[in-house]
Structure to design on (420 residues):
């Protein structure tokens, strides 16, 4: 072991477990690729101001959790704590919204950074796969995204997740509700900090995890009862479309998200096997974000699913993914001539798309066969001087233990046909 360790709140993905993460990312991306979403990649850091304006000055993410720093050139940057503000910034910068093809549908996959108190399922470096549909106000788009996330989780074999759905209203009805909630909160017995929060961002108080606060919130006014007719109709249509698609969800009138840009539809995917960090994914509509970062009005909706927590959810449900074998064929040469011949065989197999590996380093038969076993390969090809003198190699089926001699010139074709 070296003197260095991964920084607090981070961990390394190493084989064989790392294969699960790749498979999860792939499974989340597949339905998006299949539904008109194009891949986008943005830098790992952005101007601090983008997140301050986009995610919200009063959010925990911006006030406490950002890795912000000043560059040698004097720029104030932050490691990205989330993807939506960056993706919208990039779409605006590239004028994607002017190409006359709205909504602009984008998906992404990458690392995000939040200076949070680490615990199981909560890390300072984590990974998300996300989707954003920019520039259309259409309940079918909100429904599409929820349905695609559901499809992604199901394709992985997850069953014990729930979808929580709410509407946060719009600039017409939310201020009315906000004032009513503030009135209510002012009458409660709350500490200084919470009262301050009630002033700046009262909806966040609903999300307070403390029991004594939650008890006092029992009779709090609910946004549901304040939605304007347009928001009500919009929400009703989203609900109907999801229901018609056979996706079940729960209405959660108290669902508030940790980012300020949301309007109307908001949702969270929670998994009950994860303890306190139960949100495996979340998202919603953000009709005002573009204007908040200096762009035109572009109503949009999206989500991000946490890869780390999705892997934990798979473990909690005891789901083992059907991962393709890392290696199908392992070659064990005995002697220099065999090295040359089998190295050629392995190269040809690889060119033909067969996953093959080779015993490197001067090893005896016993050590090499141990490597072959560990590789998980279905077949081992062994050759020594005597085999080559006869023009053959030994093909061993690692499942049945059966071994046969196959002509050197036939071995590639034989393996391909056995593996197909
Ligand atoms: P979020 O709810 O902050 O939303 O994050 C989405 C998911 O990322 C969470 O549900 C969780 O699975 C994962 N996640 C967040 N923080 C951590 C952490 N510290 N450790 C491990 N996993 C974590 C967003 O980021 C929005 N940008 C989603 C969105 C896209 N809304 C609209 N479009």
């Amino acid at each position: 072991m070296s003197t260095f360790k991964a920084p607090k709140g981070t961990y390394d993905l190493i084989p064989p477990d790392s294969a699960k993460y790749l498979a999860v990312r792939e499974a989340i991306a597949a339905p998006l690729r299949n539904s008109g979403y194009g891949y986008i990649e943005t830098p790992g850091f952005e101007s601090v101001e983008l997140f301050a304006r986009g995610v919200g000055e009063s959010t925990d993410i911006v006030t406490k959790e950002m890795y912000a720093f000043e560059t040698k050139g004097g720029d104030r940057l932050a490691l990205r704590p989330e993807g939506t503000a960056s993706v919208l910034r990039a779409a605006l910068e590239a004028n994607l919204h002017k190409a006359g093809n709205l909504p602009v549908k984008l998906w992404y996959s990458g690392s995000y950074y939040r200076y949070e108190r680490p615990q199981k399922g909560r890390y300072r470096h984590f990974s998300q796969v996300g989707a954003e549909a920019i520039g259309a106000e259409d309940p079918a788009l909100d429904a599409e995204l929820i349905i695609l996330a559901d499809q992604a989780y199901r394709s992985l074999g997850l069953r014990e997740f729930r979808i929580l759905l709410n509407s946060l209203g719009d600039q017409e009805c939310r201020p009315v509700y906000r004032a009513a909630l503030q009135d209510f909160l002012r009458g409660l017995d709350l500490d200084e900090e919470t009262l301050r929060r009630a002033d700046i961002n009262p909806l966040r108080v609903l999300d307070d995890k403390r029991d004594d606060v939650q008890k006092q919130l029992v009779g709090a006014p609910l946004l549901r009862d304040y939605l304007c007719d347009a928001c009500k109709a919009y929400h009703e249509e989203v609900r109907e479309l999801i229901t018609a698609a056979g996706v079940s969800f729960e209405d959660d009138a108290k669902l508030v998200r940790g980012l300020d840009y949301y309007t109307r539809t908001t949702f969270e995917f929670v998994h009950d096997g994860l303890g306190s960090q139960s949100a495996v994914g979340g998202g919603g509509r953000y009709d005002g974000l573009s204007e908040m970062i200096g762009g035109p009005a572009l109503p949009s909706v999206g989500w991000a699913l946490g890869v780390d927590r999705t892997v934990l959810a798979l473990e909690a449900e005891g789901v083992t993914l059907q991962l393709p074998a890392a290696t199908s064929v392992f070659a064990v040469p005995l002697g220099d001539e065999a090295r040359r011949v089998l190295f050629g065989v392995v190269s040809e197999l690889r060119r033909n798309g067969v996953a093959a590996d080779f015993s490197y380093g001067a090893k005896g038969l016993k050590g090499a066969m141990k490597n072959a076993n560990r590789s998980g390969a279905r077949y081992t090809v062994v050759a020594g001087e005597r085999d080559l003198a006869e023009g053959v190699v030994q093909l061993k089926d690692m499942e049945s233990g059966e071994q046969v001699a196959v002509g050197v010139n036939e071995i590639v074709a034989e393996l391909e046909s056995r593996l197909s």
About this structure: The chain has two domains: 17-173+227-317, 329-419.
